[in-house]
Amino acid sequence: MRFSAALSSIPLALLAVGCATAHPENPALDAFPPGVAGSTDVTYYDVHGTTARELVADMRRLGPKTETGASFFGETHSPLRWEWKTRHDGPSCTASDVSVFIRSEITLPRWTPPSDAPSALVAQWNQFLAALETHEIGHKDLSGRAARDVLTSIRRLNTLCTSFSTEAKRVTDGIVTRLRVEQAGYDAQTRHGVTQGATFPRRPVTGSVPPPF
Questions:
Q1: pTM for the complete prediction?
Q2: How many domains does the chain have?
Q3: Does residue 14 fall inside a structural domain?
Q4: Is residue 201 part of a domain?
Q5: Domain containing 15: what range?
Q6: Contact 104, 31 (CB under 8 A)
């Protein structure tokens, strides 16, 4: 399971706020901190087979890839974007109409069991997919908290107008750097979802079990 993010700051006029995509089957997909305009899109890649070996082979073949060719079962992209208007008070400036946007894009496998698929395999798949979704939502939530911190930090800025954008960049760059560390730490702590049950086929979690990719 892998996370990646693109982040940018735009100190321009306020734009329209996008709506969240509804996911009634799992409301956690569209949960974002108050004040953050967020949405989540889920993209599925279809895998086929009647055995765990066949399904794993398809996930490795069709799942998200890194630039080096490593494959993952799932992936989360969470681009952040923020913008504001500047309010002048003599030589000092503060931000008004601050908006932070996050559009999370999660990639997951999808399997439609054939009629002859063993019921135990179907149950195991459903458990794996739920755990994998939980892991990817964790990546999304980390980005959501960073988006909230960007919103709060820009709202609190009060500095010379000539250096407002520079100071805003310094503050938000720090948040972005911290987010990347947190995302990497989350994968290290969960071993890319292994400790959350995102392994297929299911196997005991021990200190020697590698990430499932």
A1: 0.83
A2: 1
A3: yes
A4: no
A5: 2-196
A6: no
Residue 72: strand, helix, or coil: coil
Four-CA torsion 192, 178, 96, 144, nearest 10 degrees: 10
Q: Are strands 80-89 and 7-9 parallel, antiparallel or unpaired?
A: parallel
Identity of the amino acid at 74: G
Q: What is the DSSP string of 10-55?
A: --SS--PPPPPPP-TT-GGGG---TTEEEEEEEEEEEE--SSHHHH
Beta carbons of 40 and 28 less than 8 angstroms apart: no
Unique residue bearing structure tokens 């503060």: 94
Distance CA 168, CA 160 (A): 11
Q: Give domain status of residue 170, yes or no.
A: yes
- Residue 109: what pLDDT? 97
Alpha-carbon span 4 to 156, nearest angstrom = 28
- For residue 123 the two structure tokens come to 């149950």
Q: Identify the pLDDT of residue 71.
A: 87
- Please report, as a single letter, which amino acid is at residue 150: V
The residue ranges of the chain whose pLDDT is under 70 are: 1-24, 204-213
Nearest to 5 by CA among 70, 77, 61, 53: 77
Give the single-character DSSP code of 196: G
Length of the chain: 213
Task: Indicate whether 138 belongs to any domain.
Answer: yes
